[in-house]
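Journal club side-thread
Mid-discussion, someone asked how the predicted structure for our own chain would compare to the paper's figures. Pasting it here so we can look after the session.
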Amino acid sequence: MNNGLKESWEKEYQNNKGIPTSHQDSPSHSLPIFFDFLNRGGIRLEGRILDLGCGKGRNSLELLRNFQCEVYGIDISPTALQAFQSTAEQEGFASRIHLIEGNLANPLPYPNEFFDFALD
């Protein structure tokens, strides 16, 4: 794993706070628009969802709150993943998340067609 990249993200999640979305707990403003799109189409999001660069899980947690799904999150920052895990446990979602530390420049450790949906 690229240590410089990992180090930069660790600093961001630990104390830099240079990227506002890295420190927000609320989901992306586009997620409700996406939910509305799904609802209008009668689509229920289910199954396994991959969250690439999940960070602290702000978008994945919103998916877990609204749909019966499992989230597989991958992020380069152990600090962010620990925050995601902690919040998921507090909200009762620990059994529905699967988090790994990884660099998105590397191949994903999942078989083809494993996921039903992915978000970035």
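Post-session note: The chain has a mean pLDDT of 87.
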